[in-house]
User: What shape does this take?
Amino acid sequence: MTEKFVAAAQQERFTRKKHDPAFPAEAIEYCLEEAGINVTDIDHVVFYDKPLVKFERLLETYLSFAPSGFRSFLAAMPVWLGEKLYLKTTLKRELAALGNCKQGELPDLMFAEHHQSHAASAFFFSPYQKAVVLCLDGVGEWATTSAWLGEGNRLKPLWEIDFPHSLGLLYSAFTYFTGFKVNSGEYKLMGLAPYGQPVYVDLILDNLIDLKADRTFRLDMSYFNYCTGLMMTNDKFAQLFGGPVRTAETEITQREMDLAASIQQVTEMVVDATCANAAQETGADYPCLAGGVALNCVANGIVLRDGPFKDIWIQPAAGDAGGALGAAAIVWHHYRDGPRTVDGKSDLMTGAYLGPKFTEAGIRNDLDAYGAVYRQLPDEELFPAVAGILAAENVVGMAQGRMEFGPRALGGRSIIGDARSPKMQSVMNLKIKYRESFRPFALGAG
Ligand SMILES: [Fe+2]
Assistant: This one.
């Protein structure tokens, strides 16, 4: 048997709820359909982290900070007791319902570790035979940053930095402090950075993060509230930056832009130092990156430009969604000792076009069902027609081929406009995507 990566999709794309935490029934149904199999044909089902270890971290953190944090402890507990600790039961029940079978007919459930899943999603799908793998994340079970050595079909842990010392959570603290939503507003902070000056870099390095000569770092937890509170930062953090947290949806001032530029520069410094040290420690020519911080494309660009590596590979779904790929790869390569063949050039992601595609008949059926007025054009008429619509400063929704897996629009599902138009960026941001006007678009796809 050999490996063939058939499909990957996120539940949010089917339900249209961003970060939908529900059991991903539609996403699984789609993957099974693409593979042409049923639930009972599956050999292994694997989940990308270990909820019990995560729960232990939560309990230990609360206990070590007790009695402060009791309120957030109470807030977190019902979710854990109600759902997360019974994940195995929930998964079995839902999978059986999906497969229309008895729970006894289901394959065994397996659990990989969070950072191991990230690392596997980076290395096993990369083009390299040997690489150093860096996971730069918020937090999983305990690890926040970890390094691995990947070789052939094996991934070996090298070192890790544990909670609460986390580059991802530091970045999220600034996301929170500048009035954006943690876990989804990090992009906005990155987009805001070019508008500001990095005037707070020294303040951050002198007070918040101690970047050691080796690749480790520690945060001064007296400025943060995420261990015990429902907020990321506290009054001491606000005092350091001369004012309170920005209220969401209020005007963005120069201070937020400067904070964004400063934390961006610190992030780049830490990522760069971590990569440089990893290269020195392992002698590897290539790094593979995953984890939420690896979505910081500006920092990745600096590693490639200034770092010691010949090239770099980043898992396109570097956030937790990609953990599913990694967990599956661990079962195949580590548990089943499945072989891995690479050519040093092309990766296994097929451009991240791993989701469903629309058929012509399906599109026509849906349009007819809604009584939509439409025209079907051959390509030689379609392209000039779309170009004309774009040139008249209109915005076009585009779907072609399979849907991308991961947070980036790569031309599969995109909203396109004329880059020459001075008003296009704000039209798209405000009217179409309902997002802040400063946010950048890709030149090829947005
Ligand atoms: Fe993660």
About this structure: DSSP finds 16 helices and eleven strands in the chain. The radius of gyration is 23 Å. Residues 114, 118, 137, 140, 291-292, 320 surround fe (ii) ion (CB under 6 Å). Residues 154 and 193 are 38 Å apart (CA to CA).
